[in-house]
Specification:
The protein is α/β, with parallel strands linked by helices and about 325 residues long. It has one domain: Ribonucleoside hydrolase-like (Inosine-uridine Nucleoside N-ribohydrolase, Chain A, Alpha-Beta Complex), CATH 3.90.245.10. About 40% of the residues lie in helices and about 20% in strands. The chain is built from 15 helices and 12 strands. α4 packs across α5, α5 crosses α8 and α10 crosses α11. The relative contact order is 0.14.
Length: about 325
């Protein structure tokens, strides 16, 4: 059986890093490349962080540098905003764990050219897992919309129906670049777009027991992830009073691996607010009030236990999953 062809579009970011370490360990996926975008950190940081994670995983995969800023600033020839995800992800975006960059795995080909070339080579086969702002995808649409309509599927971490994080109603990735969100969802008649937003991701909290288990039972990679998430853990206590973390970007990876981790998926019309007090808010017609084209599959509920067990199995191995099941038996 041929492997599924994946492009991972990312702005690492601690949760991006855990998602990528999981993705790269899943044999049925052929990860064609990693495309970087500005978001959690500036484009140099996010590109370098993707390179670090590929080197750590010992994979022969390239990083393709993408947009340095949001769509309107890129199109207007403006520099980056000088605003990013702050120190939630540590000073370097990876919790300061000190992984080395490998300049040899950073390609001179742009993310936009790589995405379009890949889709032209494999029309109807490419799945894009997008866990940062959607700027690269929107710029690719501008350059060749017909080709982008031949993407098989987009798995997006972003947005929210009933909650936000950067504002009360807006999630960071979608808030950062609302124009790109609208452009990507304009493909929804031809491309299945799955939104894994905050309503879903916040159901899956890796608590202190889960994190201790990862450190103690999951070997060297588990120790790395545990060290990486410490700034993240502090931020979740400060802002949410969680004794644990939400690994947002892991959820679309897990869902791409096994869609049954989602226990409620709603085919809906999705629009986004571009400015004003509610900038970045997703307007999702869950009950089909508008009778408009349904351009999004919106994840509303997750099977949290299944998510955690799948993560333990894919990111680490079957033995770690079985140990997790024995240490934390279901009720």
């Amino acid at each position: 059986m041929s492997k599924r062809k994946i492009i991972f579009d990312t702005d690492p970011g601690i949760d991006d890093a855990v998602a990528l370490l999981t993705l790269l360990n899943y044999e049925p996926f052929e990860v064609l490349g990693i495309t970087s975008v500005a978001g959690n950190k500036g484009i140099t940081h996010t590109t370098d962080n993707a390179s670090k994670l590929i080197k750590y995983s010992q994979k022969d995969i390239k990083v393709y540098q993408g947009a340095h800023s949001s769509y309107l600033r890129v199109k207007g020839g403006l520099p980056a905003e000088g605003r990013d995800g702050g120190n939630v992800h540590g000073v370097d975006g990876l919790g300061g764990v000190g992984l080395p960059v490998d300049p040899n795995n950073i390609s001179s080909i742009s993310a936009i050219d790589f995405i379009l070339d890949s889709v032209r080579t494999y029309p109807g086969e490419i799945e894009i897992i997008s866990v940062g702002p959607m700027t690269n995808l929107a710029l690719a649409i501008d350059q060749d919309e017909a080709t982008m309509r031949k993407v098989k599927k987009v798995w997006s971490m972003g947005g929210g129906v009933f909650r936000g994080n950067v504002t009360p109603v807006a999630e960071f990735n979608y808030w950062f670049d609302t124009v790109s969100v609208e452009k990507v969802y304009s493909l929804g008649n031809d491309v299945d777009i799955v939104m894994v937003g905050l309503d879903a991701t916040h159901q899956c909290i890796f608590d202190a027991n889960d994190l201790a288990f990862i450190r103690l039972a999951a070997g060297e990679k588990g120790e790395l992830i545990y060290a990486m998430v410490q700034d993240y853990l502090s931020a979740y206590w400060k802002f949410n009073k969680y004794i644990g973390i939400v690994i947002h970007d892991l959820l679309p990876v897990l869902m791409a691996i096994d869609p049954t981790v989602c226990s409620r998926l709603v085919h809906s019309n999705l629009r986004i607010v571009h400015e004003g007090l509610t900038k970045g808010q997703c307007i999702v017609d869950l009950v089909d009030s508008w009778k408009l084209n349904k351009n999004a599959y919106v994840v509303m509920d997750m099977d949290v236990r299944k998510c955690k067990e799948l993560f333990m199995e894919v990111c680490f191995n079957q033995k770690v999953k079985e140990t997790y099941q024995s240490v934390f038996p279901t009720l």
